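Section 5.1 Outputs to date
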Amino acid sequence: MNFRRSLPVLAAFLLAAALPAAAQGKAAPKATAVDAKTAYERAKAAAVKWQADAELFGFGNLVTGPVDTEGRSTAWNVKFSSKASGKMNMVSVNNGVVTTWETPGAGGRVIPVKPETTWDSAKLVKMADEAGGAAHRANGAKVTLGLVASTVVPGTTLWHVSYQDDKYKELFHVAIEGETGKLKVLSD
């Protein structure tokens, strides 16, 4: 056998053997759940870097990363718009890591975040659980949180806490005023 001909074959063989070994050595990224305040702060920092006039128009977690009893999720979805640029920035906070995606468009209704707007997702979940959500959670319901601009009291916010089954059917839903903490059961 010619040594020069066998060198590429040997190199290919060694590379093929090394790839699975290298792949086995790398562990999957650890799921890191963060609370709403942390997700918002990380997303807001990225949005302000993107455009100085960035305004929040969407905030919530995904059902694929349901909120735990401490108000933490592995999958937050945060949306910002910029009037100056005429664009939106879709920000994901997955496992604590921020990813951004810019797209054309005006965005939605601005969520008026104020110093008194609560971001204490653990407290929000506890309130919803105590209002009747705990029974649904005990039966396997997945919990999502979302913040919107209140249409009832302009200039304020409203948190929605929703409990869903495995087929995404809503089982229980409460609204909590973001500035006062007043809770109302919307569906049970």
